[in-house]
Amino acid sequence: xxxxxxxxxxxxxxxxxxxxxxxxxxxxxxxxxxxxxxxxxxxxxxxxxxxxxxxxxxxxxxxxxxxxxxxxxxxxxxxxxxxxxxxxxxxxxxxxxxxxxxxxxxxxxxxxxxxxxxxxxxxxxxxxxxxxxxxxxxxxxxxxxxxxxxxxxxxxxxxxxxxxxxx
Length: 167
Prior knowledge:
Elements: H1 2-18, H2 32-37, H3 50-65, H4 68-83, H5 86-101, H6 104-119, H7 122-134, H8 137-153
């Protein structure tokens, strides 16, 4: 019985190490390229959780694989992100969390709507934004519900145009 208990303890200890959180990566273990790209984080690197360090290293790998045009777009997005206030960043993080909580079908529907919207001419996008912003919270909710019903069932006597966005 003691042997069985000892074996079980050893097994659980080994299992625990296998599933333990990844260890932090000392700065000097990063490659010169990783150190160059992650230089802004040098002073706080060891304060970062190990999982975040791993994500940042993977980001460096993705960066190396990007074309110059892709890198240009990423730099632009980073500048835009850095220009946001802490409140705006928090709001965007919350929206992203809510998006990831949605079922995959709804996520896909939202992506389709976004692509449709981005293909519109700028003046049409501006007009739609102004119209949306002029609606009250109740009107927006009612609009979403009508659009969802129309998309799922089709409005009587109406045919959904192929260029029309999903709700």
